[in-house]
Write a structure and sequence with these properties.
Elements: H1 4-31, H2 38-59, H3 79-94, H4 100-105, H5 112-139, H6 154-176, H7 178-181, H8 190-209, H9 217-220, H10 228-248, H11 255-273, H12 282-308
Length: 309
């Protein structure tokens, strides 16, 4: 059991985190690059993932969490720790974009730490919604988000998109790799690093090959996310917000809430500028928010169960 539970925890969390949060990070990239083979898209994402985690491992003397677990000491893995990513796997298959930070880390960080993660995540949702609303309301005056980029401009936007996606993917990894690393000792050797990287790269390949699964619907149903220009702007704004919160403090936060908040603000801004009835998009926004709240409710229940044990 000493080996089984950590092993299952790493496998379950890797599959759940990459197929839930990573799709939200790489979703616009996949939506706007359907003409490119999934192998090429996967190779780019896998390369950045490998380089980022390896660099973090060197920089932090064997810690791949980028300091996100400094206030969450290593705990011998029990069955209820493994249950959290197992539940996340089920929710991911259903298509609910829940917060992996809450659902996974909540079993390790009961009490005050959980409250700090919640406050930081709620602030992230509100800030990203406000920033997105302001940016896209301004962009609406000069860009028509519902029209595709002219053919002669696509190659330039495609180049910018790969840059912004790489920036976002790097920033996301420095945040959410903690949701996987929490099942590992805070300092690991190369004999553990290499198998973990191999597992993550393999799961990433499955995600790209399957087109993102049901979680991808959260992205694909939003306005013009299949257009390369829109995807580029979304990725850059999202990455910038995550970077700000990363530099602000090492307390883990829900990147899912930041992403949902950003899409919410963007949809409202586009609708308002084009004089569309806001009530037409409210059901979609409310649905995404309800899914986030569902994940939070489940996380709270898990915290209470862990306390009881």
């Amino acid at each position: 059991m000493d080996i089984l539970y950590p092993f299952l925890g790493i496998v379950f969390s890797s599959v759940a985190v990459l197929n839930n949060d990573a799709v939200q990070t790489l979703g616009t990239f996949m939506s706007s690059n359907k003409s490119i083979s999934w192998q090429k898209l996967w190779l780019m994402a896998a390369s950045i993932l490998t380089i980022t985690i390896t660099w973090g491992w060197f920089q932090n003397n064997g810690d791949i969490s980028f300091g996100r677990l400094d206030k969450i000491p290593y705990t011998p893995i029990q069955w209820y720790h493994v249950a959290a990513p197992a539940v996340l796997l089920v929710l991911t298959r259903i298509g609910i974009p829940v917060s992996t930070t809450f659902l996974v880390l909540s079993t390790f960080s009961v009490g005050v730490m959980f409250e700090k993660m919640l406050i930081k995540s709620m602030l992230g949702y509100a800030l990203s919604a406000l920033v997105a609303y302001g940016i896209w309301f301004g962009l609406a005056k000069i860009l028509d988000e519902k029209s595709e980029v002219p053919a002669e401009q696509k190659k330039y936007w495609r180049f910018l998109q790969w840059i912004s996606t790489g920036f976002l993917w790097f920033t996301w990894i420095t945040h959410d790799i903690a949701n996987i690393a929490v099942f590992l000792p805070r300092k690991i050797g190369v004999e553990i690093l290499i198998p973990v990287l191999a597992l993550l790269v393999a799961v990433l390949a499955f995600m790209f090959r399957s087109g993102g699964g049901k979680i991808q619907n959260v992205v694909s149903k939003k306005t013009s996310t299949a257009y390369v220009r829109s995807a580029t702007i979304i990725d850059f704004v999202y990455a910038t917000i995550l970077l700000i919160f990363k530099e602000w403090s090492n307390i883990p936060m829900s990147t899912t809430w930041v992403f949902v908040g950003l899409l919410c603000g963007r949809e409202l801004a586009i609708a308002n500028w084009q004089n569309e009835k806001v009530k037409q998009i409210l059901p979609m926004i409310a649905k995404d928010f309800l899914k986030a709240m569902t994940g939070l409710a489940i996380s709270v229940i898990i915290v209470l169960l862990v306390k009881s044990f």
